[in-house]
Design a protein that fits this description.
Number of domains: 2
CATH architecture of the largest domain: Roll
Number of strands: 10
Radius of gyration: 20 Å
Number of helices: 5
Shape: elongated
Strand content: 25-35%
Structural class: alpha+beta
CATH topology of the largest domain: Pnp Oxidase, Chain A
Order of helices and strands: HEEEEEEEHHHEEEH
Largest sheet: 7 strands, mixed
Distance between the termini: 39 Å
Length: about 230
């Protein structure tokens, strides 16, 4: 397992993509002009259904096997009721030796073409090597549950976390909600009357295990209680 990047404060595009693929409950498969939504990935994620191969690797029974263009589309949706809930789009494209069958329980081989992640920061291409080497964020599969628990059962903590945001960034604030959480920190979405912006609250150290989440959140809350910044209600 590779070490964390020095002073990293957020996941790389490859890490985000790998985590989205791991946590996905559905995907859309586009081939031969047809779109098929595949639900219930049984906790295995798309990569439990699709096995990626190097572009120059062996493919199919022999080199004469027909190659069918295919595209996998996934969306990363915020689990909390923020504005503009779409956080990212992931697209994987490549070739298959046979049409994809959603009902099949076997893994389908796909020759890698390209992988793209699109979010508020723009579009980033991820290589197969980067994707394979990227670590899955320990929060990937439980982020949604933890954020909805925070909003539903501990709404008083969000205004407290706002103390960590610079006062000038909160001018005209209407509402604030947690948008995302990963090994490096938490993202709050600040909503104003006609716009919104996201702010990162970094953890003291990156998490290596999901069991550390409580301690990391507690560290943010402790820092917020010590902060002298005034805040507005969420």
């Amino acid at each position: 397992m590779r070490s964390h990047r020095a002073r990293a404060t957020q996941p790389t595009p490859a890490e985000r993509m790998r985590s989205i693929l791991t946590a996905a409950h559905s995907m859309t498969v586009v081939t031969d002009g047809q779109r098929e939504v595949v639900h219930s990935l049984d906790g295995t994620g798309p990569m439990g259904r699709i096995h990626l191969h190097e572009p120059a690797g062996t493919f199919g029974p022999d080199h004469r096997t027909p190659r069918i263009p295919v595209r996998l589309e996934l969306t990363d949706i915020a689990p909390t009721p923020v504005r503009a809930r779409l956080r990212a789009r992931v697209t994987l494209s490549g070739l298959m030796a046979a049409p994809y069958t959603a009902a099949s329980t076997d893994s389908t081989c796909m020759q890698f073409g390209q992988a793209v992640i699109e979010d508020a920061g723009g579009r980033t291409y991820v290589t197969l090597e980067q994707l394979q080497e990227a670590e899955i964020d320990p929060m990937a599969s439980c982020e949604a549950g933890m954020l909805t628990h925070l909003v539903d059962d501990h709404p008083e903590l969000v205004p407290l976390l706002l103390r960590l945001v610079e006062p000038q960034a909160k001018t005209g604030l209407v509402r604030a909600l947690p948008l995302a959480m990963d090994r490096y920190g938490m993202t709050l979405r600040l909503e104003f009357r006609a716009a919104h912006r996201d702010v990162r609250l970094s953890f003291p150290t990156p998490m290596t295990d999901v069991d550390q989440a409580g301690l990391q959140i507690h560290a943010l809350l402790t820092a917020a209680r010590r902060s002298s910044h005034h805040h507005l209600p969420a």
